[in-house]
Amino acid sequence: MSSLLTTPLHDWHVANGARMVPFAGWSMPVQYRGILEEHKHTRTRASLFDISHMGEFLLEGPGATSILSRVVTHNLQTLAPGKCRYGFLLNERGGVLDDLIVYRLAEEKYMLVVNGARIDADFSWIAGLLPSGLRFLNQSDKTAKIDLQGPASFAALAAAIPGDWESLGYFGFRETRIEDFPLLVSRTGYTGELGYELYLPWDKAEWLWERLLNEPDVLPAGLGARDTLRLEMGLPLYGQDLDEEHTPVEAGYGAMLTSSEPFVGKAGLDAVRERLIGLRIEGRRSARPHDEVYLGDTRAGVVTSGSIAPSLGCCVALAYVRADLADASSFAIKAARTSLEAVRVEPPFYTEGTARKKTGT
């Protein structure tokens, strides 16, 4: 793993028994105590995830709002400072270059959070679309990201970090300072549970990590549990469920593409060849990416994500299938050495998440 990039918490992970694996060019912890245990702990208490491989860009200057509204898929005129929004970066054909979250820091100042494997490509693509006069910086190597997720996350955050977190609503964020360094706290996440994503200077990550772990309900978790948690919610992973060959409409996000702005790729959204659907498979044998999906004798598509769903006692999957076959109620998945019967289910598969729960008393 010597050629892999490392987060500021790498040495902590190794010293504390994490199993490290390559992920998107990084050495990342996939598990500590076990994926199923970490999954359950996140659903019932709170887990801490090192997500410092993600990328952060800063954009500011006159006209930043209108210009960025033509680069990403949302009209940012409707996004208030202190709020953030999930969206997409598209190629000219409407294919997904990346999914991202845009934070409006001030009237003409934004932070864009992108996937770790796409940092360089995204930065170059966006820079090529910007006029002169704007300040566009790649802050990824200076910014650590720690995710605190689970029903007990509010109590842990409130105990560890001073602030009025009770009034922080879903997809809202606050900028504060602790121990004389800047900290951005966002009420967002990738697990379906009440949670927070924290952005801070790279060299302060271990201090905050250990401070949060001092809270009684908080334990570290790896990317394995993060993947099963997001899949139970039907949330897509870039490089598997999202890619340049499929549009956000095909991935099931057409309803959020309401911007009247002429953003890059908008003209390509009308062509719908395939649709991303949810599949439920009884038992404990899961489908895997690249398994083929059949409707009768007709090859309908391919699985993009699949796993056991620990909260549900079955397996679930996401798959792209032909648009003309996507409304069928059941499919067969040709997995290794067997065929799996799957029923189409509208995600999220898990519906008891606390992400939108009111916090405080």
Automatic annotation (TrEMBL):
<feature type="domain" description="GCVT N-terminal">
    <location>
        <begin position="9"/>
        <end position="256"/>
    </location>
</feature>
<dbReference type="InterPro" id="IPR029043">
    <property type="entry name" value="GcvT/YgfZ_C"/>
</dbReference>
<comment type="similarity">
    <text>Belongs to the GcvT family.</text>
</comment>
<dbReference type="GO" id="GO:0004047">
    <property type="term" value="F:aminomethyltransferase activity"/>
</dbReference>
<dbReference type="InterPro" id="IPR006223">
    <property type="entry name" value="GcvT"/>
</dbReference>
<dbReference type="Pfam" id="PF01571">
    <property type="entry name" value="GCV_T"/>
</dbReference>
<keyword id="KW-0032">Aminotransferase</keyword>
<dbReference type="GO" id="GO:0005829">
    <property type="term" value="C:cytosol"/>
</dbReference>
<keyword id="KW-0808">Transferase</keyword>
<dbReference type="InterPro" id="IPR013977">
    <property type="entry name" value="GcvT_C"/>
</dbReference>
<protein>
    <recommendedName>
        <fullName>aminomethyltransferase</fullName>
        <ecNumber>2.1.2.10</ecNumber>
    </recommendedName>
</protein>
<dbReference type="Pfam" id="PF08669">
    <property type="entry name" value="GCV_T_C"/>
</dbReference>
<dbReference type="GO" id="GO:0005960">
    <property type="term" value="C:glycine cleavage complex"/>
</dbReference>
<dbReference type="InterPro" id="IPR006222">
    <property type="entry name" value="GCVT_N"/>
</dbReference>
<dbReference type="GO" id="GO:0008483">
    <property type="term" value="F:transaminase activity"/>
</dbReference>
<dbReference type="GO" id="GO:0006546">
    <property type="term" value="P:glycine catabolic process"/>
</dbReference>
<feature type="domain" description="Aminomethyltransferase C-terminal">
    <location>
        <begin position="275"/>
        <end position="350"/>
    </location>
</feature>
<dbReference type="InterPro" id="IPR028896">
    <property type="entry name" value="GcvT/YgfZ/DmdA"/>
</dbReference>
<dbReference type="InterPro" id="IPR027266">
    <property type="entry name" value="TrmE/GcvT-like"/>
</dbReference>
<feature type="binding site">
    <location>
        <position position="197"/>
    </location>
    <ligand>
        <name>substrate</name>
    </ligand>
</feature>
